[in-house]
Specification:
The chain is mainly alpha-helical. The chain contains seven helices and no strands. The radius of gyration is 15 Å and the shape is elongated.
Length: 141
């Protein structure tokens, strides 16, 4: 059984990080690329939100006693395989997991145009993921 307190805490962290991104992210990519503080705040909070979603996914799989994949990107596909989330959402989150690895390990220069695009549009998927897990938990109660 998924620990409701752990789930709530991680969802709150993801939600807070997404809110911080939305507060700081300039609408124009040019303004973002030229503003070091915005770049750092958005990149860090994007990492925190992505890491939180990955932790939520791994926690859900572990508590359900399903196999937890070795790679971060596979945890979302595993949740889709078990019917917890939709496959199209899982696919988008797999791509986000790749960005998390890029930020964490700094494989080459960070593409701030890509970071801006993801922060502008894809953070909704992170919140959708959190909402779906919260709904699934309520269904099991």
């Amino acid at each position: 059984m998924v620990d409701e307190a752990v789930l709530a805490s991680k969802i709150a962290a993801v939600t807070d990080a997404v809110q911080r991104i939305r507060e700081v992210l300039p609408p124009r990519v040019e303004d973002f690329r030229s503003n070091r503080t915005a770049r750092e705040v958005v990149t860090l909070n994007l990492f925190v939100a992505l890491q939180g979603c990955l932790a939520l996914a791994a926690h859900w799989l572990s508590d359900a006693r399903w196999t937890v994949p070795a790679s971060y990107s596979d945890v979302f596909a595993a949740l889709a395989d078990h019917g917890v989330i939709e496959r199209d959402l899982a696919s988008r989150l797999v791509a986000a997991a790749g960005l998390r690895n890029l930020i964490a390990h700094q494989y080459g220069a960070i593409d701030y145009t890509r970071i801006h695009a993801i922060a502008s549009t894809d953070t909704a998927d992170l919140l959708t993921f959190c909402r779906v897990l919260a709904e699934r938990l309520r269904e099991t109660r």
